[in-house]
Amino acid sequence: MRDTALPPPPEEELPHLWQKPAYEVLFARLKKLRVEPRVWTLHDSRTDILKEQAVTAHDRREIVSFLSSIIKSSLAWLDSDDERELVWEEASKRMSERCGRTAMGEITRRWPFEDHGYGAFSLAIREPPLTGDSLGLKTWGSSYALAQLLHEFAAGPLAHLFVPGPLSTPQEVLELGSGTGLLGLAAACIWKTSVVLTDLPTIIPNLAHNASLNQEVVDGQGGRAEVAPLTWGGGREDIDSMFWELNRYQLIIVADPLYDDDHPALLSSAVHEQLALNSDARALVMVPQRDETTKGLLRTLREELARGASPLLCLEESIVNGQDDWGDENDDDEMRHVGFWWGIFGRDQSGAS
Question: What's the CA gap between 101 and 141, in Å, rounded?
């Protein structure tokens, strides 16, 4: 049941346009109304989330009305067209921030990681405005959810890849569909190894920016991050030459890779081409179970991975509860609570001699 207690009053009253507030007053108040996207964690209390959303919903109605009135107003009392344009622009930004993260302009937010034996750190990730279907320009909740579990995998089902020694420690980890790079950069920091972050050529400029932005952090944690284009199912012209040599990676990671019907087959082909053929090689995959569509895409991916001369079978799997901000603030709260499925795949050696 939702917490129906009245939220606290706003810190300061919003200006009334009929009072013709000065440019400095309007602009300063609009700056204070900036909304930062939430950084979800696996440790959020459902009660705390509901309380926070109740306060947000109460304040949002008043603030949206205020922003709408500015956008519709001629602001005729301000001294210049430049002042009016700046106020309208700032009000429009604040309005878009309240229409969901996919409607936001460029943002940079910081993602913290607690010390689980590898040292606490945080990553700054830039997310440009979403254009067309370039979903790789946004950081989805699954990347953070999986990143927070990496130390557990290294000590558990992937431990054989992290035993000290040149023959057992993966010299490089490959991330497919890196997007903004949060997962791959976190893997470099937590696993203290080299990670190659890849995505479509259109995503690479922002991905490279984030790798550069966090280079000092990654280096300080004992890791290394490299960025290169890799189009699933593409020819040599669509991938970096470093991927022409097939089956070289002992460990592949990927989070939230499926949002179209052809993605399971394309991802499967990329994994089959890049994952080493030995019995120790592993692919760690996380797929949010948002709805029946994503559940169906996961089933198809498992089927595709199990095909071919050297099938990949799911050796271990589970679901962790997490948060995702796919959608907008008007979505029902239940849509924000997502089960993040993860699976570890390895080569089927049953037919090997």
Answer: 12
* Cβ–Cβ under 8 Å, residues 112 and 124: no
Q: What angle do CA 194, 239, 281 make, to 5 degrees?
A: 45
DSSP 8-class letter at 243: G
Domain chopping of the chain, boundaries: 17-98, 107-347
Summarize pLDDT for 264-296 with one digit per residue, the tens. Answer: 999 999 999 999 999 999 999 999 888 888 899
Please report which residue ranges of the chain form alpha helices under DSSP H. Answer: 23-32, 46-72, 81-97, 141-147, 150-155, 182-191, 204-213, 215-220, 263-274, 292-305
Amino acid (one-letter) located at 295:
K
Looking at domain 107-347, what is its CATH homologous superfamily? Vaccinia Virus protein VP39 (3.40.50.150)
At residue 45 the predicted structure's pLDDT band, cuts being 50, 70 and 90, is: very low
Position 329: which residue type? E
b/e code 251-278 from CB counts within 10 Å (16+ = b): bbbbbbbbeeeebbbbbbbbbbbbbbee
CA distance 199 to 206: 10
Joined tokens for residue 105: 């302009």
70 pLDDT higher than 90: no
DSSP 34: -
